[in-house]
Specification:
By secondary structure, this protein is an alpha/beta fold. The protein has 14 helices and twelve strands. The chain has a six-stranded parallel sheet, sandwiched between helices.
């Protein structure tokens, strides 16, 4: 068999604890099944993370990391592609080579740096927004993780041709599905679950206010909120709201948890609450459907692509609606969907299908004139 194109795959974000890391790892594993139709060589930023994480670094370390990060995309990644005689660079994020003798394909998760930049640290916002604009204008093909994000790009960048767009829907975290459920040491009380980085865009405040309203009306309720996810940008107001709403004994903050623990949480929660203001996809929603956890989520185009009719969808800032949903979860009247139907819907999203779409993007990029 004639060997296929040789791809340099930027795996720099593989260790990211959020959905970004799941996408990078999941797609790389999926692409392995397409060899030798494509030959994939992984590359990564030398720090092992590639993330411009400034939360726990002093200004000197932040600046040093930023310079090294920039050097990787300006020089190291393009040079590796040439040294290894790769036909194309595949970027499973919006971090892209800043010199490109070789063509590249980029992946856009969302347009947060352009739409919700106020929720990000200033340095990262400027850097990621510049990378995003650069990649969108220069990539041969642009992959998105939902049709909704593809539509956003075409609306925001009118010069971009629709023929350059491809949708590469993610699958669930394979480590999560394969893990044995490991009990989490939380009080033996009913709980609803939130999964994701603790940051303004995830809209924890709506759920906290809804829970406070629920407790005010039903003080005998034992319902708790369990939050799984690392601290992100500007999470202080969320922590403050827990105290201000007197929910300290009802909100359990776990931080990032192991796949087995997260699986146990999905399997035992009354429902996943996903009130995001904006999402490119919504991996926790997909994982909940796979694991028979009822879903109450924001009515967003990208979320609707996942759920169809298999979830309760609400306006993200409608606190009374979310409070009613919390009441229903406590009363055993959670989202009324068929588990079999929800699993069937979720099973459409696989890493094999994602990889097949990525291979199509690679071929389209190589066929497309420079």
């Amino acid at each position: 068999m004639t060997p296929g194109p040789r791809i340099l795959y930027d795996a720099s974000l593989a260790n990211n604890p959020a959905g970004t890391g799941s996408f990078v790892r999941g797609l790389l594993a999926g692409l392995d099944h397409h060899q030798p139709a494509v030959e994939v060589i992984a590359s990564s930023f030398e720090s092992g993370s590639g993330a411009l994480d400034s939360r726990h670094k002093n200004p000197v370390l932040r600046l040093r990391n930023s310079v090294r990060h920039l050097a990787y995309y300006l020089q190291t990644l393009p040079q590796r592609a040439e040294q290894l005689d790769c036909d194309l660079i595949f970027c499973p994020s919006s971090l892209v080579p800043l010199r490109n003798r070789r063509p590249f394909v980029m992946t856009v998760f969302d347009l947060t740096p352009l739409r919700f930049g106020s929720t990000q640290e200033w340095l990262s916002k400027q850097y990621l927004a510049a990378m995003l604009r650069t990649g969108i204008h220069r990539a041969r093909i642009i992959c998105t993780i939902s049709q909704a994000i593809g539509d956003e790009i075409l609306a925001r960048f009118p010069g971009i041709e629709a023929s350059r767009m491809r949708v590469t829907y993610p699958g669930p975290n394979p480590e999560l599905l394969a893990a044995d459920a490991t009990p989490v040491p939380v009080p033996n009380r009913p709980f609803v679950l939130m999964v994701g980085t603790v940051e303004p865009r995830k809209n924890h405040l709506t759920v906290l206010r809804a829970l406070a309203d629920h407790v005010k009306r039903q003080p005998q309720s034992e319902l708790m909120l369990v939050v799984s996810g690392s601290a992100g940008w500007r999470y202080g107001p969320i922590i403050d709201a827990i105290a201000q709403l007197k929910l300290g004994d009802r909100v359990i903050r776990l931080g990032s948890v192991a796949p087995g623990s997260l699986k146990w949480l999905y399997l035992n929660a009354r429902a996943l609450l996903f009130p995001s203001l904006y999402e490119g996809f919504g991996l926790p929603v997909l994982e909940a459907l796979y694991l028979d956890c009822p879903v109450v989520a924001s009515r967003l185009p990208s979320v609707l692509e996942i759920t169809g009719a298999e979830a309760t969808l609400l306006p993200p800032t409608d606190v009374p609606a979310w409070a009613a949903a919390v009441d229903a979860c406590m009363d055993g009247r959670g989202p009324a969907t068929s588990r079999e139907s929800a699993r069937r819907r979720a099973s459409r999203f696989t890493w094999e299908a994602c990889a097949a779409s990525a291979v199509d993007a690679v071929r389209a990029a190589l066929d497309r004139p420079a």
